[in-house]
Amino acid sequence: MAMEEFQVAIHQGNLSDAISVVQAKPLQYFSDTPLNVAVVGEPGSGKSSFVNSMLGKRAGEPGAAETGIQATTAMAKDYRHPTVPQLILWDLPGKEDAAFGSRVEQVDLNRFDFFIIVGYQRFRTVHADLVHEIQAMGKRFYFVRAKTDLDLEASRRRQPTGCDEEKVLQRIKEDCVTCLLNEGVIDPQVFLVSNWDPQSFDFPLLWEKLQSDFLWLKRQAFIVRLPSLSAPVLERKVAALKRKILLKVLFSGLLALLPVPGFSFVAAMFFFVRFRSQCYREFGLDDQSLTALARDIGKPVAALHAVMKSRPLMPLILWRLPDLVGAVLMLVEYCSWNRYPYAGSLLSGGVSLFTTYYMLQRCVVAVANDTQNVLSKALEKTTV
Ligand SMILES: Nc1nc2c(ncn2[C@@H]2O[C@H](COP(=O)(O)OP(=O)(O)O)[C@@H](O)[C@H]2O)c(=O)[nH]1
Ligand SMILES: [Mg+2]
To answer: Are residue 231 and residue 374 in the same domain, yes or no?
Structure first.
């Protein structure tokens, strides 16, 4: 399984292998991956009816989603497609479904791989908000404009003779596309449907498009889920490294006892940089690995360095400023012989012990976070 291969590569600190698990696989590899599609939109727009049309069911039939003039859907519910089992449609409660008040489940859209926004009549703020939310997650959507039959009926009433249906439909579609373009959507996919008749309007086109995008969308879903797959592996690595920290810290504390002003600062920085290099090697962020990864993904190493927050040394130097207290005290001791000749050394040792401990702890976590950042950066190309 690609998921396990990916996790093993992360565990071994081999990011190049982890990326190639995804890049090298043919699309067909993802055929068994489920695609969780959330059907979202304002209350009453026709979401539940759309789900039924997709399933080939009529409202009221066993296994069909509940539909109605009043708000009917209070909880997210999944429907597996009868002939395409990897396609799981989620009927969601309408956004701002006031009729249910607090009973409406607040659904976390992160759970879903792909979205179908079902709108009706005008393009509204609720649609724009959904578009932004979906795009912020790096995910895709189709925009379905339901109840097209009602739009045509209204046009026919307005113009009983000579109503050019094609033109009306084209205008509605263009309007939706323009609104989506205005929201920053690249290549918006708009379909006009009537949930009463899945054979009419753009319903067959929508189904065709979904079928042709299906494998690609599943691969995409897999890629988007990768950070959550690598997170537990990275956490285990962090825990293992943290266990090794205490011994190193005690040693650096002992060195800082040497009565040489500023020595604790130099020793701790030396320790820190060495430890960080070790972390980089463990996680696969050392220069050699990063160069190989950059070559594999066709990006400059600088692009990977840019997302690594653990690289700059300046914050580390600031963290070591308390060392100066011990150093100053030592200097005072040298200049005027006082009654506590070792106070500076002890202080310097103590300070070094604490600051080094926290710095190393933070370093492991920062390097693990950077691993996620580098992975996301490396996968960026595959997600577009
Ligand atoms: N004429 C027409 N009515 C529809 C269509 N889709 C849904 N409806 C009606 O709109 C109302 C709300 O539909 P429903 O699917 O429950 O909307 P939801 O709240 O978004 O799930 C119901 O009375 C449906 O029968 C459609 O394509 N055409
Ligand atoms: Mg509903």
So the answer is: yes
Residues 269, 129, single domain; the answer is no
48 lines ligand 1 (CB under 6 A): yes
Highest mean pLDDT among 3-17, 239-253, 311-325: 3-17
How far away, in angstroms, is 151 Cα from ligand 2 center? 20
Q: Which atom of ligand 1 is nearest to the CA of 193?
A: 27
DSSP label at 38? E
Q: How many domains does the chain have?
A: 2
Q: How confident is the model at residue 140 (pLDDT cuts 50, 70, 90)?
A: very high
Residue 15 falls inside a structural domain: no
Q: Is the separation of the CB atoms in 46 and 150 below 8 Å?
A: no
Q: Domain for residue 220, yes or no?
A: no
pLDDT at 33: 87
Residue 214 maps to a domain: no
The answer on 148 and 57 residing in a single domain is yes
> What pLDDT sits at residue 99?
45
Residue of 65, 76, 67 whose CA lies nearest to 45? 67
Q: Which ligand is nearest to the CA of 41?
A: 1
Residues 255, 370 within the same domain: yes
Report the pLDDT value the prediction gives residue 69, as an integer from 0 to 100: 61
Pair 49, 178 in one domain = yes
Task: Please write the tens of the pLDDT for every residue from 151-166.
Answer: 999 988 888 887 788 9
Q: Extract the runs of DSSP E, i.e. beta strands, from the chain.
A: 35-40, 77-80, 87-91, 114-119, 140-145, 190-192
Q: What is the pTM of this model?
A: 0.75
Do 239 and 179 lie in one domain? The reply is no
pLDDT of residue 382: 53
Which atom of ligand 1 lies closest to the CA of 118?
A: 20
- Tens of pLDDT, residue by residue over 1-31, are 678 889 999 999 999 999 988 887 888 888 8
Residue 45, domain member (yes or no): yes
Query: In sequence order, what are the beta bridge partners of 80?
Result: 88
Instruction: Judge if 180 and 233 occupy the same domain.
Output: no
Give nearest CA residue, ligand 1 atom 16: 67
The sign of the dihedral angle between the CA atoms of 45, 47, 52, 55 is positive
